[in-house]
């Protein structure tokens, strides 16, 4: 299947979804289309902006007060306070949203208050530690004002870039609801690309064409009507859909099979047009889709589960890296002595929601070129594989550098094993549920691996095990898989 859009230009009418997949020279699978947030790491840019904002504030300090230790403490404290306030959280609708993400003016009160507390605390600590370097009221006010102005200026530049990306690279979305409401929302989003959402289809509860009320719906592109699970799945894969917008106030709730299918493909469900109960005033005024409020329809336990999984990853990967440090050094030395420079092998893999990342391994052989590295399935029996490489692969020690990928957030300790983009495209065409594996972060090990599905084994079986793991995930299951993985290392089978 391709990633061509299913929408066409013309009067805003709806039509049944075409059953034949579209073709095009720019065909790519949904899993190969990383989200906008992955292509433009705005959270990292905001952190960099907050770190740089401390430097102009140093101009208000004397030479004695302007110590590297003080500036470092201010930087770390500012980033920590902003992170605690949620100022680095991903944008709404799962990616960069110009009309949905809080604007700079929404953030001013939180930034100003936290920086005021930060500078008052810094002045008190500096006076207690070195009374002769105490900050006077004027110096304190000047340093605070410069820090605040710099932070707002730098973050403002990042937000402008965010809005420009959202406008130029809108996220594909499905609109769910009855005919008039779904059509109105789709047309409205089409007329306002600054919202960063591009509707590509309407999911309706009726198994028929939707009538167009005369004069009730603004003009816009024709969109296919998706009334069957097959239509929904095709639209999701062809367009790389990651968001589904459910129009509130209408009898247009998605059918259970549609909702399950959308979640299985990693689509977030958003309720548009209804404020969250008991949350009045909790969201900034700038967070809207052209005046429509929205909120994520996600069970509270889902977010708690993600946080607990990430906590397990950080603690587990950190401890394992410390414990395995001598082994890592020995492996690196062995690879260096046997194969020369270039101890680590870096390869592009597909992670959660199709996001591309660079996977790390110990080098076990040198491929002839980049094409061989990207498209050759297995090198387990390659004649170029030396004694060191064979040992590392047989014992899975070549995978140890991926603990750094886990610590960085590219991967999880447990999850579906990540694959190269070339094979993701091939397997997605051969197996209908393969793309659904990308609903969760890729893992160092997984349910398929502890059942012996490693190396040259059935992709269909791996896909089934991976999706079963995601559908029935729990923190204790992750612990069990880690324990079973540790047990298999006693009698390694290689990869």
From TrEMBL:
Keywords of this entry: Membrane, Transferase, Transmembrane, Transmembrane helix
GO CC terms, sorted: membrane
Database matches in InterPro entries: Bact_transf (IPR003362), EPS_sugar_tfrase (IPR017475)
Annotated Bacterial sugar transferase domain residues: 309-490
Membrane topology: Multi-pass membrane protein
Region (Disordered): 1-33
Primary location group: membrane
Ranges that cross the membrane: 42-64, 134-154, 311-335
Coiled-coil positions: none
Biased composition annotated in UniProt, kind: Polar residues: 1-12
Subcellular location: Membrane
GO molecular function, one term: phosphotransferase activity, for other substituted phosphate groups
Family that this chain belongs to: Belongs to the bacterial sugar transferase family.
Database matches in PANTHER family: COLANIC BIOSYNTHESIS UDP-GLUCOSE LIPID CARRIER TRANSFERASE, UNDECAPRENYL-PHOSPHATE N-ACETYLGALACTOSAMINYL 1-PHOSPHATE TRANSFERASE-RELATED
Record's protein name: Sugar transferase
Source species: Streptomyces thermolilacinus SPC6
Lineage: Bacteria, Bacillati, Actinomycetota, Actinomycetes, Kitasatosporales
């Amino acid at each position: 299947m391709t990633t061509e859009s299913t929408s066409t230009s013309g009067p805003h009418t709806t039509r049944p979804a075409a059953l034949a997949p579209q073709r095009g020279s720019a065909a790519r699978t949904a899993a190969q289309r990383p989200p906008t947030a992955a292509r433009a790491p705005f959270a990292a840019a905001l952190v960099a902006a907050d770190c740089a904002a401390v430097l102009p504030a140093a101009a208000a300090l004397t030479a004695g007060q302007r110590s590297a230790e003080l500036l470092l403490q201010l930087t770390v404290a500012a980033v920590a306070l902003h992170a605690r306030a949620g100022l680095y959280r991903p944008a709404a609708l799962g990616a960069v949203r110009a009309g949905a993400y809080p604007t700079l003016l929404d953030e001013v009160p939180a930034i100003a208050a936290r920086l005021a507390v930060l500078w008052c605390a810094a002045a008190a600590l500096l006076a207690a530690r070195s009374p002769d370097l105490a900050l006077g009221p004027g110096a304190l006010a000047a340093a605070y004002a410069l820090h605040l102005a710099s932070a707002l200026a730098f973050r403002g530049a990042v937000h402008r870039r965010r809005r420009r990306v959202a406008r130029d690279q809108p996220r594909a979305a499905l609109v769910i609801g009855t005919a008039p409401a779904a059509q109105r929302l789709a047309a409205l989003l089409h007329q306002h690309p600054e919202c960063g959402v591009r509707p590509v289809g309407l999911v309706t509860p009726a198994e028929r064409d939707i009538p167009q009320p005369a004069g009730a719906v603004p003009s816009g592109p024709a969109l296919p009507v998706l009334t069957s699970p097959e239509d929904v799945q095709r639209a999701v894969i062809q367009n790389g859909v990651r968001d589904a917008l459910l129009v509130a106030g209408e009898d247009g709730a998605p059918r259970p099979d549609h909702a399950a299918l959308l979640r299985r493909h990693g689509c977030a469900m958003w309720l548009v047009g209804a404020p969250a109960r008991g949350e009045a005033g909790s969201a900034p005024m700038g967070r809207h889709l052209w005046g429509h409020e929205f909120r994520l329809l996600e069970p509270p336990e889902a977010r708690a589960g993600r946080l607990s999984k990430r906590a397990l990853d950080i603690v587990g990967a950190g401890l394992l890296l410390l414990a395995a440090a001598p082994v890592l050094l020995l492996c690196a030395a062995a690879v260096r002595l046997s194969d020369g420079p270039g101890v680590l092998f870096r390869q592009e893999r597909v992670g959660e929601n199709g996001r591309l990342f660079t996977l790390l391994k110990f080098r076990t052989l040198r491929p002839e070129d980049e094409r061989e590295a990207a498209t050759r399935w297995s090198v387990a029996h390659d004649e170029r594989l030396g004694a060191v490489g064979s040992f590392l692969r047989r014992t899975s020690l070549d995978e140890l550098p991926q603990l750094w990928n886990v610590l960085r957030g590219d991967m999880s300790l447990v999850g579906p094993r990540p694959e190269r983009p070339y094979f993701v495209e091939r397997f997605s065409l051969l197996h209908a549920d393969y793309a659904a594996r990308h609903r969760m972060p890729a893992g160092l090990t997984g349910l398929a691996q502890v059942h012996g599905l490693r190396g040259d084994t059935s992709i269909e079986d791996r896909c089934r095990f991976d999706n079963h793991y995601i559908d029935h995930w729990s923190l204790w299951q992750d612990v069990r898989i880690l324990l079973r993985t540790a047990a298999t290392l006693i009698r390694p089978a290689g990869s």
